[in-house]
Amino acid sequence: TCLDILCRIDEFWANLTCDLSQPSDTLKASRMAVSFQRLFQGNSTNYPTSDHQVVCDAEDSLMCSIHLNSSRTFAVLVTVNISNVMASTVLLRIPARPVKPSPPVILAHIQTVEAELILSWKEPSDFSGNLLRYEVRYSSQNTPPYWQVVSALEKLNVSLDLEPLLKYTIQVRCTTQSQLPLWSDWSKPYYIYLHNVSYIPQEVVARPGENVTVYCVLNGHSANASMAMWSLNRMVPLDPSLYHPVNQRVSQITFMASKTGMYDLLRCTQEWSIPYSRINVEGGFINITCVTNGDIDTMNCRWENEEWAILKFRSKSAEMSCDEMEERERDGEDVGEMGPECSPNKYKEKVCTFHPLKMNCYKVWLELPSHLGLIRCKPVYVSPINHVKPNPPTNVTPVSLSSGILRVTWNPPLLPTEGLQCQFRYHTLSVIEKWKFEESVRVPWAEVEIPDMCQVYVVQVRCKHTSGIGYWSEWSDSIHSTPQSSRAPERGPDFWRMRQDDPHRSQSNITLLFE
């Protein structure tokens, strides 16, 4: 007689249950009994027997269960008795309770230069033991999702064929390579949205003038890479000799990174929108200009750049000359003290201020945060005393002398104390803004010949450090010249006359003498 007995363990690994049905070839119903006896672990061939025994009996069919002590029970002896005839004892070895693994983590994706999209993930951190196998499901529908499932076996990545302009939800789960596999929960959702175009790399760091290779992947299956037209920074078309198709859907360009600015933007299509490839330039030149005010207590630094991003202005100061600071940093030495961070709030605000001011050397540069770390422009070393813009001169007094000379005097600003050179310009009041400039002088006055002393002249004066370093001050306020002052006599001079008559000619000569 063949007995069909089915034994199973519940999901909590707490009970062993066996089902036994009366054999179909039995002539009549008989009394059946099943007994269970737990065994504990000994050596590989010997299991000490427990005193605890469970016996179930019934007619036709029965279900019998025994509680498992999961920490000690490793086998169960099963004995079947029908009509007092005992079958051979069966030893059921209890497998180790399978552990449900945690779901995979850190889902990510890349695209290759062969236009292949690779999804990758990390195995759960609490995993130890047998190799895991994986399943990936993805859907571009939200309600209800229509899942497509891909098996990944033991690999930690899989290639997916996704369409552009659709938002995909992707999840991964795993299970152990055991006799009783138990799947993990699905991972947290990971989302992929493919634009019509992708770039490899999407972002890269290069030095000024360094060659960079970028690939443009056209995600539509009907795309043709030979139609790609690369452009720089939104509008500048690039020479077609720089790029060529790699295959049906991929175009490649080798491009020289700019020597100025913080980054370049590359695109391979006519329409200008996201995405693009960004070439970050480490050490590119940006024109940073610092000006110290006339009171030499504040320095403003401004810069010019075309990037849309808001840059961070950073600085270090050291009590040494700028030549020494630059040389020691070139040798790899870390010198100076970092200054506070300055981040203008608006795109058009490109100025940062030092106040109070130290009379030493400042190293200033601009930073741009990126996914690849901070990008820095070429630093500028500034000594505040060499970048002074003096205050305008005061008490400007232009006078037209009777000798045909325009004489201008002024009071120069008090700082810088090393001395100043000043220059004046002038034009006649009747000729608007047609300035004539005179050479600079190191004394607080200057003269120039003028054709007409009775004309009114408009005069302005500015000053600069005597050495020529730094900046000219603003022009002083416009002042109108005045003629040299003089007083008329209170009465006319004494005078006499001498008369000579000529009676023959009926005329007289009169000579006037006066003092």
TrEMBL record:
Respond yes or no to whether keyword NADP is given for this record: no
Protein keywords: Glycoprotein, Membrane, Receptor, Signal, Transmembrane, Transmembrane helix
Where does this polypeptide localize?
Membrane
- Reading the lineage from the top rank, the first entry is Eukaryota
Per UniProt, what is the membrane topology?
Single-pass type I membrane protein
Q: Which PROSITE patterns match?
A: FN3
The yes or no answer to whether the keyword Metal-binding is present is no
Q: List the protein's name.
A: Fibronectin type-III domain-containing protein
Q: Which residues form the Fibronectin type-III domain?
A: 100-197, 392-485
Name the Gene3D superfamilies for this protein: Immunoglobulins
Looking up InterPro entries in the UniProt record yields: FN3_dom (IPR003961), FN3_sf (IPR036116), Ig-like_fold (IPR013783), LEP-R_IGD (IPR041182)
